[in-house]
């Protein structure tokens, strides 16, 4: 019996939601959209969902990216986590 080990449970290309959190500040959402457009020129800023924290100190964004491969998705995560305005990426 042979089993084929898949590198990922995802089938690419796929739409993949990512949560990005940072301090509430002018330009945060725009900076994240600009970063995502480096990976997908057609990323639609109108699809970004924004939720402020209960105290208003932080802003959570849910962005849905079009991932073409596991490596592409990994590159997006690395760019987001390395951005100076980003505190957490889930």
Automatic annotation (TrEMBL):
<dbReference type="Pfam" id="PF04359">
    <property type="entry name" value="DUF493"/>
</dbReference>
<comment type="similarity">
    <text>Belongs to the UPF0250 family.</text>
</comment>
<dbReference type="InterPro" id="IPR027471">
    <property type="entry name" value="YbeD-like_sf"/>
</dbReference>
<dbReference type="InterPro" id="IPR007454">
    <property type="entry name" value="UPF0250_YbeD-like"/>
</dbReference>
<protein>
    <recommendedName>
        <fullName>UPF0250 protein PEP31012_01273</fullName>
    </recommendedName>
</protein>
